[in-house]
């Protein structure tokens, strides 16, 4: 099914290239016939003049040139189909990850190495099966043609030749499973080395500060040793299989010689016939080899389809994986334009009922949370370390799957918060910010259509304007891993600015305390509150914080304790009624006094 659709992503090129590849497999039939005539002419077994022999030589060269020409054409046409197929698979997977309903993060594998491997290796495996179908057809046609020609010359020798070819097929069948296992292992261990090197580069500072250079290098050597052993084993098995196949070809040639000798003496089997048989025998090993390859490629393709489909939205399947989506191989694709969505249902009140989100069925997470966030209000979620604050806001925004409960926007149930609570309804500045190796402007906008004035206003609200002024090229400074390194605080304020430039109705900010000192945080909330008052900023705020600057300003505070709501109310109310709030408040007073 997937294979059929994959052929059709660029059917013209698949059919065109396919015919060319099949021709490359079939043309050797002609070579054999020319060789037969040529050797018969040379050995005098056929009446022929010198001219005729020369013409046959020329024909031989012409056939080989034809094959070379067809090969050149095939390798020119085929990449159009191959790249269209790979691109289609990758873009469909990406599209699904980025736009599907439900939290995408829960579908992604934990290690980025694994995700990259799926995009690279699984896509390749699936394309390869479709590619190999053409080889199979070519090898099959050649085999049928060759057997027909050989049987017309000598049926007995032809039938005997089936035996060594069957040996090759059986050998391939028996060994392919093992070869595939060894190959997979080598690939996994190769990926482990790449992944380890990636982590090592990312954690250079941590390694140095822990004095772990030698230990890390030793671990890398260990990974490398395992990869090398597996790679050697992989190469060796492949070579063994090839050697066995070549040996079978030699045996076949011997068999032809043995059986043809008596007939050659009587002239029934000519030197030309012998040349034809020898020429075909080498090519005949293709079919059992390709069949053997297909026998493990097809299940591998099925596994690849499953693994890629698992990355996609739950309602999508293999059909969506190979759906045609427009591939631009020659010209640039049309520019992508992000439109500011025109939502017709402005926020009045956002509620949750019995919101529960737990991790892998474990007890940790948040349980049974009822929230009511009015338009224009400032809500603070607070609690001890690990109380579930981040889990609560992420579950509310649909970034984590809900175990139970519901989210209501203006009283209407939100089916999929992950695709509903997005800019410009809501924007989120997370606790673990991510910057790309691009200019600061591109990092803040990420394609959002805002003008310079809106950008400057967002930066001002996020208290980042002085930092931008100090950067060598202002907004055009390249930041992130390949650019100017920003401080942790700058990165978090940049993330807040990214959320603010989207002019959301609801701004959700997860704990800025590590990014801002007490006074700067105070200034930031002052600015945002002022902007809200004048209609220049988000009207409604949901903030994770334990800082006084936020708690004192809050219209309501939600206190979490080990995943459960311990109290909801204003600071004064909670200080009167909620022991957990009292404990947190007392701790915060001490911490801030020390900081000041
Ligand atoms: N991906 C995860 N898998 C399993 N458990 C998790 C995961 N993320 C968080 N937890 C657990 O869920 C609980 C709540 O974590 P959460 O990050 O929501 O707490 P928090 O209040 O935001 O903490 P902090 O103040 O440190 O940010 C913790 O016990 C944590 O160990």
Description:
The protein folds into 3 domains: 2-321, ABC transporter transmembrane region fold (Up-down Bundle), CATH 1.20.1560.10; 343-425 and 505-596, P-loop containing nucleotide triphosphate hydrolases (Rossmann fold); 433-503, P-loop containing nucleotide triphosphate hydrolases (Rossmann fold). It is 63% helix and 10% strand. It is built from 20 helices and 10 strands. The strands form 2 sheets. It has a 6-stranded mixed sheet with strand order 6-7-8-3-9-10, with helices on both faces. Strand 4 and strand 5 form a beta hairpin. Helix 4 runs antiparallel to helix 5 (155-202), helix 5 runs antiparallel to helix 7 and helix 19 (571-577) packs across helix 20. The radius of gyration is 35 Å and the shape is elongated. The structure holds adenosine-5'-triphosphate.
User: Ligands bound here?
Assistant: adenosine-5'-triphosphate
The main β sheet shows up as: 6 strands, mixed
Strand content: 5-15%
The top-level CATH class of the largest domain is Mainly Alpha
Mean pLDDT: 86
Structural Rg: 35 Å
Q: State the shape.
A: elongated
Q: Architecture of the largest domain, according to CATH?
A: Up-down Bundle
N to C succession of SSEs: HHHHHHHHHHEEEHEEHEHHHHEHEHEEHH
Q: In CATH terms, what is the fold-level topology of the largest domain? A: ABC transporter transmembrane region fold
Outline the low-pLDDT stretches.
none
Number of helices: 20
What is the CA-CA span between the terminal residues? 67 Å
Subcellular location: Cell membrane
Membrane topology: Multi-pass membrane protein
GO molecular function, one term: ATP binding
Protein name: ATP-binding cassette domain-containing protein
């Amino acid at each position: 099914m997937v294979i059929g659709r994959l052929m059709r992503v660029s059917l013209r090129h698949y059919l065109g290239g396919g015919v060319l590849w099949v021709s490359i497999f079939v043309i050797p039939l002609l070579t054999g016939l020319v060789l037969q005539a040529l050797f018969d002419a040379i050995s005098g077994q056929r009446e022929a003049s010198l001219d005729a022999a020369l013409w046959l030589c020329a024909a031989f060269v012409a056939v080989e040139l034809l094959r070379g020409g067809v090969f050149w054409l095939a390798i020119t046409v085929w990449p159009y189909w191959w790249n269209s197929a790979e691109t289609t698979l990758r873009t469909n997977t990406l599209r699904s990850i980025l736009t599907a309903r439900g939290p995408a993060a829960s579908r992604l594998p934990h290690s980025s190495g694994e995700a990259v491997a799926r995009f690279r290796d699984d896509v390749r495996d699936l394309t390869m099966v479709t590619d190999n179908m053409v080889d199979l057809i070519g090898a099959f046609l050649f085999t049928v043609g060759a057997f027909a020609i050989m049987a017309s010359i000598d049926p007995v020798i032809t039938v005997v030749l089936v035996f060594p070819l069957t040996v090759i097929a059986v050998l391939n069948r028996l060994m392919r499973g093992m070869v595939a296992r060894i190959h997979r292992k080598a690939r996994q261990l190769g990926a482990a080395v790449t992944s380890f090197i990636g982590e090592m580069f990312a954690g250079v500072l941590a390694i140095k500060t822990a004095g772990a250079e030698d230990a890390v290098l030793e671990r890398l050597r260990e990974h490398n040793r395992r990869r090398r052993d597996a790679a050697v084993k992989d190469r060796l098995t492949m070579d063994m299989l090839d050697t066995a196949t070549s040996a079978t070809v030699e045996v076949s040639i011997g068999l032809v010689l043995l059986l043809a000798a008596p007939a050659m003496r009587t002239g029934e089997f000519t030197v030309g016939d012998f040349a034809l048989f020898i020429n075909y025998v080498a090519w005949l090993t293709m079919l059992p080899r390709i069949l053997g390859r297909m026998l493990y490629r097809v299940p591998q393709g099925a596994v690849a389809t499953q693994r890629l489909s698992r990355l996609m939205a739950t309602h999508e399947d293999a059909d969506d994986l190979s759906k045609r989506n427009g591939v631009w191989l020659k010209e640039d694709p049309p520019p992508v334009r992000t439109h500011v969505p025109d939502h017709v249902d402005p926020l009045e009140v956002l509620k949750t009922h019995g919101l529960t989100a737990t991790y892998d069925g474990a007890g940790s997470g948040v349980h049974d949370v009822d929230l009511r966030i009015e338009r224009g209000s400032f809500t603070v979620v607070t609690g001890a370390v690990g109380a579930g604050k981040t889990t609560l806001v992420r579950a509310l925004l649909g970034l984590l799957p809900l175990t139970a409960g519901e989210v209501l926007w203006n009283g209407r149930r939100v089916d999929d918060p992950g695709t509903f609570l997005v800019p410009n309804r809501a924007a989120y500045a997370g606790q673990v910010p991510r910057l790309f190796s691009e200019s600061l402007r591109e990092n803040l906008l990420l394609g959002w259509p805002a003008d310079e004035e809106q950008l400057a206003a967002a930066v001002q609200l996020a208290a980042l304007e002085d930092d931008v002024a100090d950067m060598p090229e202002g907004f055009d400074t390249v930041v992130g891993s390949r650019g100017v390194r920003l401080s942790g605080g700058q990165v978090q304020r940049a993330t807040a600015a990214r959320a603010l430039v989207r002019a959301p109705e609801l701004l959700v900010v997860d704990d800025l305390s590590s990014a801002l000192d007490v006074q700067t945080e105070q200034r930031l909330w002052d600015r945002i509150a002022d902007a809200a008052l004048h209609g220049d900023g988000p009207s409604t705020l949901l903030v994770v914080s334990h800082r006084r600057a936020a708690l004192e300003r809050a219209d309501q505070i939600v206190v979490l304790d080990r995943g459960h709501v311990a109290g909801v109310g204003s600071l004064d109310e909670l200080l009167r009624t909620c022991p957990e709030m009292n404990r947190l408040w007392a701790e915060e007073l001490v911490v801030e006094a020390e900081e000041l």
